[in-house]
Design brief:
Layout: E1 6-13, E2 18-26, E3 35-38, H1 45-58, E4 63-67, H2 84-87, H3 93-98, H4 103-119, H5 125-132, E5 136-140, E6 150-151, H6 167-184, H7 196-210, H8 217-225, E7 231-232, E8 235-236, H9 237-240, H10 243-258, E9 269-270, E10 285-290, H11 296-315, E11 325-329, H12 343-354, E12 360-366, E13 382-385, H13 391-405, H14 410-418, E14 424-429, E15 436-440, H15 456-462, E16 502-503, E17 514-517, H16 524-530, E18 538-558, E19 563-573, E20 605-607, H17 616-633, E21 636-641, E22 646-648, H18 654-724, H19 732-783, E23 788-792, E24 799-816, E25 819-824
Parallel strand pairs: 3-12, 3-13, 4-10, 4-11, 5-10, 6-9, 11-12, 17-24, 18-20
Antiparallel strand pairs: 1-2, 1-15, 7-8, 13-14, 14-15, 16-20, 18-19, 18-24, 21-22, 21-23, 24-25
InterPro entries: HerA_central, P-loop_NTPase, T4SS_component
Pfam family, one: DUF87
Keywords: Coiled coil
Length: about 850
């Protein structure tokens, strides 16, 4: 399969009415300009969508998949071994009966058919295994525990982006969310500019978000009844929306919150899009949001919240030209209509216009072209059009295609659409010169059709996701380490009688002050054991006592040390004795915001607020003092190796820092060694050339000596023969030869001495190089240990308040040895 592009099928030859051998490849980068898939039932639209999502998984692209009908649950049905037993649970027994087969026979036929179909497109077992291991597939079921449920309370949390810089966009998001929420409780067809219910709830959320304060539904209901402001527009609050009417709206919202059917909306993981990108092992996540079990208003409510969450996450990212995430919506009918204005429409319009800059691509599918606002889809760069049911559908689509993509030869496209076969799609891509026809490839996942909610647990188990509530289901997001508290035991003694009166009605905190419920970290048995209560002691109730909670995150940024990290600080004060708070005495473990939601235990009782927690002005002064304390005590130690220019924050372990230093020293040493090598190589090359030439000279003189010696011997023999033969020969010739031989031997000795001297120089140069290289290695080895700690301070502008307000601290009320005592139900230290 293609390593870069999506393999979606093969080019289709309309003249031959069949596919060619040429693969149809689609560049995923084109999806940043979004895509539309349309076609009637049976056109192959679902298979095309499944194939596109398979390719996204294989290419490592995370995906948010909205599945209103249940078709895309098939994305978990990949069976690389093609065993009939794998297919059988997902077959329709009625289909087997109609074909006159047993279920076993149908399973065997289906497995064989799927294997053959994939082989026809060059897809084998290795590709199937690659798909299986490419991503983490999970089916989420908002409003149900059949799959992984979604806690919608997080949707009302304050966004991560600054309010002032994003005011217009956040107000549009609030408007969409409020319309969806009010529609869920039966208030439909609301005009955001005329409906006082919409205006009030929107202002409550805006007031909280503009202060960086998160809401949940309980606090939203309470603030609807008692808003933290006195006027709306030019009118006093009670004139615009009287208290009696606000109470009725609050009751309407509370009835929804109190409904047993809504409990499942409060379970599960938070709607954290950042956490839904990759799993803990680094694989991309494909998150399938199954909505087939929801009512129309519930689907609209969740889709609006989901798109709003995607948009908030998106705006907190840096811009990119690549495809960062895919959002696939399997049927957009009713969510982006041409006339009406449902809550989802506004946020989807913004996404279509702006998501490209953040690398978020939308793929929107529909089988009802008439019910889609094609003007809204004018930003879609790719249109994939399958068989259409009616001439009206085709004409409506052609009108939209003309306005959306600027297609000029509409008549030619009209004819091509009219002649489309099953599983054949016409692609109009703004990045291509002309439209193309292709037939979809065989899906790697078994297309079982829409699956029911009762089948979701088994589907998730195929992906290793345990049924909700049966096993410890890890949320997609990682849990940051909390700063460990080192202070003494909690503000209350382990066993302490309390004489103050308690009430079952929660006291009202000052207007504009946030309140939080600390979690019960200990079970009743654990609390009794920790408090060393006698055997037989029993917990009777939960008591909440008020305290001040202050939690901040300090960010540390230092370009010199390449540092960008953060540290949390938290304090909980239950006894305020003087004007000056010694924050060091009250250090507490930090909480995640979703751990301290406004969610008290049922039938709990409350202690009253002390005077110092009832004055809203005191909170402002205390918050400033807390920020100053964080600033004064917020220094961070950075490991530094100044020589190597290696720095690391506290998140880097000692072993990892040593490795960073070793790597840097190795690189620096290599640079020095290369410099030494360059310097010595030149000298050694010159010497080696001299040695070569001198060696040649020695060999040449040696040959001359040998020749002279032979000539001298020959001349001597000739003279000797002459003497014995009676001929008179001069001895001068022999003597001359001897002198020449002696001279050659002297030259040879001199040449050999010169060669020896040159070799010695070369040896000395080699020794000098090795010594210098060893010195460099020893120098950089010493540098690895040159480690110091450098304090880095934060700035006040980099201190962000996470939590500040009234904390309801939980205690267990227990009967022990005839006495009523209170014991902590919490832990101050990290857990």
């Amino acid at each position: 399969m293609d390593p870069k592009n999506f393999y979606l099928g093969r080019i289709y030859d309309p003249a031959q009415h069949k596919a060619t051998d040429q693969s149809f490849l689609y560049d995923p980068a084109n999806l940043t300009t979004h895509a539309i898939i349309t076609g009637m039932t049976g056109s192959g639209k679902t298979g095309l969508g499944v194939g596109m999502l398979e390719e996204a998984a294989l290419k490592g692209i995370p995906a948010i998949i909205i599945d209103p009908k249940g078709d895309l649950t098939n994305l978990l049905l990949h069976f690389p071994d093609f065993k009939p037993g794998d297919f059988e649970p997902w077959l329709d027994p009625e289909a087997a009966r109609r074909e006159g087969k047993t279920l076993d026979q149908l399973a065997a036929d289906t497995a064989a058919s799927w294997k053959t179909g994939l082989e026809g497109y060059g897809i084998g077992r290795e590709d199937m295994l690659a798909l299986q291991n490419s991503a983490r597939f999970t089916i989420f079921t908002p409003g149900s525990t059949s799959g992984v449920p979604i806690n919608v309370l997080s949707s009302f949390a304050a966004p991560d982006v600054p309010w002032e810089d994003n005011r217009e966009t956040l107000r549009e998001k609030i408007s969409s969310m409020v319309t969806a929420l009010l529609g869920l409780v039966g208030l439909t067809d609301l005009d955001p500019l005329r409906s006082r219910e919409h205006i009030l709830v929107s202002n409550v959320i805006e007031n909280a978000w503009s202060q960086g304060r998160s809401l949940d539904l309980t606090s939203l209901i309470m603030e609807v009844q008692k808003p933290p402001f006195d006027r709306l527009g030019a009118f006093p609050l009670d004139s615009f929306f009287p208290e009696k009417d606000r109470f009725e709206l609050a009751m309407l919202l509370n009835n929804f919150l109190a409904s047993p059917s809504f409990e499942s909306w409060l379970e599960g993981i938070s709607l954290d899009i950042g956490a839904l990108q990759t799993s803990s092992d680094g694989k991309p996540r494909h998150n399938i949001f199954y909505l087939a079990h929801l009512s129309e208003s519930e689907r609209m409510f969740f889709v609006t919240l989901l798109f709003a969450a995607i948009e908030s996450w998106m705006r907190a990212q840096r811009g990119t030209s690549g495809l960062r995430m895919l959002v696939y919506f399997d049927e957009i009918m009713g969510y982006l209509p041409p006339v009406a204005n449902p809550p989802s429409r506004t946020v989807m319009l913004r996404m279509l216009k702006q998501a490209r800059a953040f690398g978020v691509g939308l793929v929107l599918a529909t089988q009802n072209p008439v019910d889609v606002d094609y003007k809204a889809l004018s930003n879609a760069g790719t249109w994939m059009i399958g068989r259409l049911q009616t001439e009206q559908d085709k004409n409506r689509l052609l009108d939209g295609l003309r306005s959306a993509s600027g297609a000029s030869d509409i008549n030619a496209i009209d004819k091509q659409i009219s002649a489309l076969d099953k599983r054949v799609f016409l692609v109009n891509n703004v990045n291509k010169a002309s439209p193309q026809l292709f037939t979809t490839r065989w899906a790697m996942n078994y297309l079982a059709g829409p699956l029911m909610r009762s089948q979701i647990p088994a589907l998730n188990q195929l992906a290793g996701i345990q049924p909700f509530g049966k096993a410890s289901q890890a949320a997609p997001s990682g849990t940051p380490d909390a700063t460990k508290a080192t202070s003494p035991t909690p503000a209350a003694a382990p066993v302490s009688p309390r004489g103050a009166a308690l009430t079952s009605t929660r006291p009202v905190v000052p207007s504009g002050v946030s309140e939080y419920f600390l979690p019960l970290d200990l079970s009743s048995a654990e609390a009794l054991q920790a408090a060393r209560q006698p055997t037989g002691a029993q917990v009777k109730a939960v008591v909440y006592r008020p305290a001040l909670i202050a939690q901040a995150e300090a960010r540390y940024v230092n370009t010199r040390y390449r540092l960008d990290t953060s540290k949390q600080f938290a304090c909980v004060i239950d006894d305020f004795e003087s004007m000056n708070v010694e924050w060091d005495r009250f250090i507490w473990r930090p909480y995640k915001t979703d751990q301290v939601n406004d969610d008290p235990r049922p039938q709990a009782t409350y202690a009253s607020l002390p005077g110092w927690l009832s004055d809203p002005k005191r909170f402002t002064a205390l918050q400033r003092d807390f920020e100053d304390w964080v600033f004064r005590n917020g220094d961070l130690k950075v490991r530094a190796n100044e020589t190597l220019k290696v720095y690391a924050g506290p998140e880097v372990t000692t072993a990892d820092f040593r490795k960073l230093c070793s790597d840097a020293a190795r690189d620096a040493m290599q640079t020095d060694l290369e410099k030494i090598g360059l310097a010595y190589d030149k000298k050694m090359d010159v010497l080696k050339e001299k040695v070569r030439k001198q060696t040649n000279k020695v060999e040449e003189i040696q040959r001359e000596v040998s020749q002279r010696t032979a000539e001298e011997v020959g001349k001597g023999l000739e003279t000797l023969v002459g003497l014995f033969g009676g001929r008179k020969r001069s001895l001068s010739g022999s003597l001359s030869k001897r002198r020449m031989t002696a001279s050659a031997k002297a030259d040879l000795d001199t040449a050999r001495e010169d060669l020896t001297a040159l070799n010695k120089q070369l040896e000395e140069l080699t020794d000098s190089r090795e010594k210098e290289e060893k010195g460099v290695e020893e120098k950089w080895a010493r540098m690895v240990d040159d480690e110091t700690e450098v304090p880095v301070n934060t700035t006040k502008s980099n201190i962000y308040i996470d939590l500040f307000g009234v904390a309801w601290v939980p205690y267990y009320q227990a009967e022990a040895a005839g006495q009523t005592v209170e014991i902590p139900a919490f832990k101050k230290e990290s857990i």
